[in-house]
């Protein structure tokens, strides 16, 4: 179990050069954009345009801040994503174009290699105490807004806005959380 502090997240250009992404976690560690098994990142989208293509990758996107954007995903009806929307899953290796609703947005992006890794992404509102089930061997809890304290087994700690908790190689269990925060839980399953 590791706390990944917001100040330590890695900043890097988008694959297509159209913006900047903030990498929260990647596996294997230090993997590049062509060699990861899974990756969790945030990006600010400041202009309409195409998404980067990632062959063999599945992606889920959630809007963290801003007025939303419409995604035109090849083979699907256009989808409006806002901060209130459920995260949207789609293949990362087909053409996708984003059109901003009203100004820049910040999104949370989870990507996994389709031939052996799967993922889930859910938004969790914390107001007081909450117990969250951890159903995968790898889980990442991002504290987007607010602050929280957590306990998992014998370990405990605290997260501020932008911090993440990465739990790896664990059996099914629970994470006890206290605080006032808006969070996102990423579950990553490998065979």
From TrEMBL:
SUPFAM superfamilies: RmlC-like cupins
InterPro entries: RmlC-like_jellyroll (IPR014710), RmlC_Cupin_sf (IPR011051), Uncharacterised_HutD/Ves (IPR010282)
Pfam family, one: HutD
Protein name: HutD-family protein
Native organism: Rhizobium sophoriradicis
């Amino acid at each position: 179990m590791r706390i990944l502090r917001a100040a330590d997240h890695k900043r890097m250009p988008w694959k297509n050069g159209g913006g900047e992404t903030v990498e929260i976690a990647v596996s294997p560690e230090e993997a590049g954009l062509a060699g990861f098994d899974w990756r969790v990142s945030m990006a600010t989208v400041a202009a309409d345009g195409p998404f980067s293509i990632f062959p063999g990758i599945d992606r889920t996107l959630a809007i963290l801040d801003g007025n939303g954007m419409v995604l035109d995903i090849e083979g699907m009806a256009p989808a409006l994503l806002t901060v209130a929307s459920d995260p949207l899953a789609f293949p990362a290796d087909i053409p996708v174009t984003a059109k901003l609703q009203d100004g820049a947005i910040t999104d949370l992006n989870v990507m996994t290699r389709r031939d052996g890794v799967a993922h889930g992404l859910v938004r969790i509102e914390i107001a007081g105490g909450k117990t969250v089930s951890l159903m995968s061997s790898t889980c990442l809890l991002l504290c987007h807004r607010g602050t929280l304290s957590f306990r998992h087994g014998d370990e405990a700690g605290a997260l501020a806005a932008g911090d993440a908790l990465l739990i790896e190689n664990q059996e099914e269990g629970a994470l006890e959380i206290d605080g006032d925060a808006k969070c996102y839980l990423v579950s990553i399953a490998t065979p």
